[in-house]
Structure formats: C-alpha cells, structure tokens
Design goal:
407 residues; alpha/beta; Rossmann fold; nine-stranded mixed β-sheet; three-stranded mixed β-sheet; AB hydrolase-1 domain-containing protein; ABHD4
Length: 407
C-alpha cells in the first residue's frame, strides 16, 4: 500500500506499494475552467492543493464561522474556556508501551475493543497531542470519538513523560526530534500492514508531524495528515510568548514541564555536560526549560538555534503527503504571521484553512459549542475520509503517477 501523493516524482516502491494503477479526473479541470468559490468569506482557504481538497469540504466550509457568543469574542477567553470547560468524553483505552531504539519509551493508547470489532484493513488515525498533552485531553478524546464513529481505528501517541508515559532514559522529546514518531509509525504500520495510516497533530504535535512529513518527503508512509494550531515558526512564537497576557500560558506550560521533570528527576542526577538541571527543575518559562535541558539534550548551541532549526515552516516545501493545516487568525500561541503561506500556496499537496477566531486549541463554534467537540473535528474527518476514498477503489489500493491525478 502506498499513500496518495500529489508531487512531481513517482512514489518509491515499498512494503506498502499498491497493486494497481488508476487515473482519476475531476469533472472540472482546474487548469481550463475557473473554479467557483467553495468556501465562506469568513474563512481564508489557500494552498496548492485547494483544487483537489476543497470540493469535498464545500458543504461544511460554505457556512460562516460563527464563534460562540460571549466566549468566542476574545482569544484568551476562548482558549481558557476550552481548556477548562470543554467536556472530556469517556473512552476506554488500552495502553501499549513501546521501547524505542535508544532504550526510551513512549505510550500508545488504543481504543479498547477495536481489535475485535474492526477489520484489519480499517484506516488508522495516529493522534499527536500538544506540548505536555496526552490522551487525557478533551480535544484528543473528541477526535477519537469522531474517528471511531466512522469506523476508523485510533491510537494516541503520548510522547516521553506525557500522558503518564514512562521515561526510561535522561531524555524527553523536542520540537524537532523525529526518532520517536518514525518508530511509532513504523510500528503501527507493521502491526496493520493492510491499513492506510493517517495522522493528526495539535500545536507542538502538529509541528513535529509537519517536520516528519518534510523529512520523509517521498518516502512517507502516511496517506494524509492534518496539522492544527501549529506554531510553525518557533522563533516568532517565542517572541509572542513573552508579551502581555501570553505570560499566563508560558507559566502554565512551564509548570506542566516542571511537573513532568520532577517525576523523573533522578534520571538526570550527575548527568554533567552542558545541562543546567536546576534551571530546568525551577523553570518559570518554557524558554528556561529549553535552555536548561532541551537544547542540550538535542545538541543545539543556543535556544534560538533550537527554535529556528525546529520550526516546521521550513519543512512545508518538502511535504509530498496530502496535508491539511487549520489555524486560527487570533491564536495567541501560534501567531498568524508565522504561517508559511507562500510555501503552502506553492505546494500542490497542501491546503490551509484559517478561521477568523478560535484561540489556541479552542474553536468554540459549530454544532458542538460551547462544551462539545471543536469546530475543526468534522472538517478533519471529511478531509481524511476523502483521501481514504481516493486511496481505495473496488477494494484495491492506488498506485499513481501523480501527474495523472486530478481529484
């Protein structure tokens, strides 16, 4: 099986190589006929892949983005409300601890009962939460339920130390460390070789996911991916993190990092080198934690170098996997000006949706507002289901010369 890619080079043969060749043509050729407007004016929708990915979403995106009254009027109110008052659906999860090649550990939380109730070829959605997030977070649980209602198999990738994932070496994870996600995707793919693999990541999880897509490029085994609230440019995000009310988020996240660190502090005793363990253990800001621990763990000379080289904005031009990016224009943590719009426009595999409001991980709008699923959830699933439907025709997987595809 191979993913459906829209790129200039043919996919590489692999264990997931598909068995038949098809050509798919849209009823309207975008090169010869101007496409009508398929989204509401309240939304910004751009990208080189818009002609392929926007039509299947037109019913949802043709409606205005209406933020919930009193909550959606302010980005900070919306961000905080969603974090504290969004419902957390009950989902029975079965944990699998995966030992990595460097003797580290990550935790994979699968929806309990899926092995017996879903066929082995059911599409699989891998979820990557944000910084310090995990399978306990409300936005993750809502996405799990929606995907599961469509008969998709779901698994949450809890990074080292997150979601009570075990930490077995003196190393956590970073915005650019791709070893764990590579091993997780390979592990899931080997376990279900007949299934298409997909991934969705929020915030830092989205940054890691896009970096992975760019690194793997033509070799990526994911069929499609979705990035939400991605900070993209970590240098810009860090600048804004220290301004005004954003200090509240900075302190909250650093407190969560300290809490995770304290559980595993004995692993870092007498570690030596350039580490500043007291700074990490008492960090008042995320930058302090990254200075004391993260940038040293991953061999960066300075925090600014770490942020610059870990920014997924630089990876977009190398992405060869269908990718949907969803951002909020008023996101206080993932600034709008950090979005790599020109590279997204130039990449035929990417589409960007920017909502006028939404805050960070908020999107308190739509049918589920104010306490239910974020506005983004149905958009995410419609996109993924569209790619999955294109990947499967008459029971066979697709292997395409990408120049022939116009969906």
């Amino acid at each position: 099986m191979a993913r459906l890619a829209f790129a200039s080079s043919p996919p590489l043969a692999s264990a997931r190589t598909l068995r038949r060749h098809f050509s798919i043509f849209a009823a309207v050729n975008p090169k010869t006929s101007e496409m009508p407007r398929l989204h509401h004016a309240s939304l910004e929708v751009i990208g080189g892949g818009t002609d392929r990915f926007l039509p299947p979403l037109k019913d949802t995106l043709s409606k205005p983005y209406d933020a919930f009254p009193l909550i959606g009027f302010n980005r900070h109110v919306e961000t905080i409300y969603a974090a504290f008052y969004r419902s957390v659906p009950f989902v029975r999860l079965r944990r699998e601890c995966l030992r990595t090649k460097d003797n580290g550990s990550v935790a994979l939380d699968w929806v309990a009962g899926d092995d017996s109730s879903l066929p082995s070829e059911s599409p699989i959605l891998i979820l990557l939460p944000g910084l310090t997030g995990g399978s306990q977070d409300s936005y993750v649980r809502h996405m799990l339920l929606r995907a599961r209602s469509k008969k998709w198999r779901c698994v949450v990738f809890n990074s080292r130390g997150c979601g009570d994932s075990p930490v077995t070496t003196p190393q956590f994870y970073s915005a650019s460390f791709l070893g764990d996600i590579s091993e997780v995707i390979a592990h899931v793919g080997a376990r279900f070789p007949r299934a298409n693999l997909y991934a969705a990541g929020w915030s830092l999880g989205g940054n890691i996911l896009v970096n992975y897509l760019g690194q793997e490029s033509h070799n990526c085994t994911l069929s499609a991916a979705v990035s939400l609230c991605n900070p993209f440019d970590l240098v810009i995000a860090d600048e804004d993190f220290h301004k005004g009310f954003n200090n509240v988020y900075d302190k909250a996240l650093s407190r969560s990092l300290r809490r995770i660190f304290s559980k595993h502090s004995l692993l870092f005793e007498d570690i030596g080198g350039g580490f500043n363990i007291p700074m990490a253990a008492n960090a008042d800001t995320v930058r302090d934690f990254d200075e004391g621990l993260t940038r040293v763990s991953f061999c960066f000379k300075t925090v600014d170098e770490y942020y610059s080289k870990s920014s997924s904005s630089k990876a977009i031009k190398h992405v060869r996997t269908p990718l949907l990016c969803i951002q909020a224009a008023n996101d206080p943590i993932a600034p709008d000006r950090g979005i790599p719009r020109e590279d997204i426009k130039a990449n035929p595999n990417c589409m960007l949706i920017v909502t006028p409001r939404g805050g960070h991980l908020g999107w308190v709008a739509g049918e589920g507002a104010p306490n239910g699923a974020p506005w983004t959830d149905p958009v995410v699933m419609e996109f993924l289901q569209h790619v999955e439907s294109c990947e499967t025709i008459n029971g066979d997987r697709l292997l395409e010369d990408v120049h022939q595809i116009q969906v």
